[in-house]
């Protein structure tokens, strides 16, 4: 038998790239790498501080810079995908992330390092653009494929956190460790160019630059003020100026979006297509999941003999539990689509919310038992995985064919923004329950167990509210036959597949 020629290999790849399985396979690998990059930095924060000689407070900007720019850029990139092609914007986003990763790896100063982190923010646009691609290629299996993509992202984050720490421990070279994700993302660019097909439905109209600028400025100002309120002081002039100014700009943005012919975000679409309520539920999910994680992991690490609370686990043990939580979430993403088919998607979301609430309640009750506390944390991770899989599939199914990208981006942005706000609010809540203790002859102010219970109690209430709202969500009927990617809608423009 003769060896396959280059032409036959390219034809084979082309055939696979046009099958739903091949497309999803390439995107799953990409999301696995995306998750690894998102989890790559936390174990390296101390080393980053040493290399650039910056304080612990300044290190907060390593993740804050990424999160802030993420909230601002993801809706814009997703909207451009709806207008000009989701593959095209996925290539652009991957190229920007690759450049940012190289800047991060070789940055000579902390300021350039933060610039690289900002350039990595389009990483969060991968999922919304991929959701549009998988729905376009195979609408009937879109829900299952979305669960697989989210599962790959979740698993990748756990692998990244573990791998970067182990790699740095073996090499003691921060530049080498930071170069690994840069190489991976750079390799993703040609893979997407040659092996992922373009979607064929376009949103008509012009780019709403006014809406994009107002939304970006409003979100950045509001979240910057809220994120730094604890450090700057909530009544400080710069905190109030940023928060109130950001809210004013967002109010102006709503006014503008209601009056332009082709808005960045069609606000009427959120209500009419059934996307608005899932996005609200997503925000509640982000608040209880990301807002409560800091308190949970701080409880694991705190020494009860010194702090008066906590379980006293070493950092390595806490890191292993982070991996366990991520594995539980990964299992939840695999379970989510099946659960949704069994009991309907709204009921699956409601059930996951009740389980999340139960996990917070049991963490309060069994806060003194290491094994039980970890078990209930893992239960919370399982429920988070179900929510991560089912909620975006509802948004994708409900979204008009020409607006899948922006709808998915709003879902992700709402979850991220709510998590950032909840983290700041929970820090304020914990500061209300403090006590003065004597530590080695000196007086120190520290939190009390009641501060942690208050945070978990709020998360419990948010979870139950999430469940109640979930039962009111409506879900578009799943297609009985394969849709073609060139089906016209009143505002969509099909184009020839290239």
Automatic annotation (TrEMBL):
It holds the Pfam family MFS_1. It is found in: Cell membrane. Its main location: membrane. It is a multi-pass membrane protein. It comes from the Bacteria. The keyword Transport applies. The keyword Transport applies. The chain crosses the membrane at residues 21-41, 61-78, 90-108, 114-134, 146-170, 176-197, 209-227, 239-256, 277-301, 313-336, 348-367, 373-396, 417-438, 450-471. Residues 23-475 form the Major facilitator superfamily (MFS) profile domain. Keywords: Membrane, Transmembrane, Transmembrane helix, Transport. InterPro entries: MFS, MFS_dom, MFS_trans_sf. This is MFS transporter.
């Amino acid at each position: 038998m003769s060896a396959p020629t280059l032409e036959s290999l390219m034809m084979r790849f082309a055939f696979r790239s046009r099958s739903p399985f091949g497309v999803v396979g390439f995107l799953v690998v990409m999301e696995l790498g995306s998750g690894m990059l998102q989890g790559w930095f936390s174990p390296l924060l101390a080393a980053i501080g040493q290399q650039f000689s910056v304080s612990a407070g300044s290190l907060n900007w390593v993740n804050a810079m990424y999160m802030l720019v993420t909230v601002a850029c993801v809706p814009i990139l997703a909207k451009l995908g709806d207008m000009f092609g989701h593959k095209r914007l996925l290539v652009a986003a991957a190229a920007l992330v690759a450049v940012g990763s190289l800047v991060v790896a070789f940055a000579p100063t902390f300021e350039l390092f933060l610039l690289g982190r900002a350039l990595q923010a389009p990483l969060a646009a991968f999922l919304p653009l991929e959701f549009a691609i998988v729905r376009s290629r195979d609408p009937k299996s879109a829900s299952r494929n979305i669960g697989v993509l989210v599962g790959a992202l979740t698993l990748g984050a756990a692998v990244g956190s573990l791998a970067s720490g182990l790699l740095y421990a073996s090499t003691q070279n921060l530049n080498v460790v930071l170069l690994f994700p840069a190489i991976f993302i750079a390799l993703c660019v040609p893979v997407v160019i040659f092996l992922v097909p373009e979607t064929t439905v376009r949103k008509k109209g012009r780019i709403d630059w006014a809406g994009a600028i107002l939304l970006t400025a409003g979100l950045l100002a509001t979240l910057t003020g809220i994120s730094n309120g604890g450090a700057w002081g909530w009544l400080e002039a710069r905190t109030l100026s940023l928060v109130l100014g950001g809210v004013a700009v967002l109010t102006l943005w709503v006014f503008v979006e209601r009056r332009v012919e082709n808005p960045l975000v069609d606000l009427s679409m959120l209500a009419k297509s059934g996307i608005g309520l899932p996005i609200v539920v997503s925000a509640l999910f982000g608040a209880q999941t990301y807002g409560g994680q800091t308190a949970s992991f701080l409880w694991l690490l705190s020494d009860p003999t010194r702090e008066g609370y906590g379980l006293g686990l070493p950092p390595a043990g806490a890191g292993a539990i982070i991996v366990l939580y991520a594995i539980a979430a990964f299992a939840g993403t695999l379970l989510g689509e099946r659960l949704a088919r069994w009991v309907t998607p709204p009921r699956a979301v409601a059930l996951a919310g009740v389980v999340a609430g139960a996990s917070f309640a049991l963490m309060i009750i069994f806060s003194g038992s290491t094994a039980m506390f970890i078990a209930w944390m893992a239960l919370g991770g399982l429920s988070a995985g179900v929510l991560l899989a089912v909620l975006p599939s509802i948004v994708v199914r409900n979204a008009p064919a020409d607006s899948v990208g922006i709808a998915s981006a709003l879902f992700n942005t709402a979850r991220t923004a709510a998590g950032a706000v909840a983290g700041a609010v929970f820090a304020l809540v914990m500061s209300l329950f403090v006590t003065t203790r004597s530590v080695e002859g000196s007086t120190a102010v520290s939190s009390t167990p009641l501060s942690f219970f208050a945070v978990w109690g709020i998360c419990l209430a948010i979870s139950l509210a999430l469940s109640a709202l979930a039962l009111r969500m409506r879900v578009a009927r799943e297609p009985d036959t394969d849709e073609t990617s060139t089906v016209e809608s009143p505002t969509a423009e099909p184009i020839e597949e290239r």
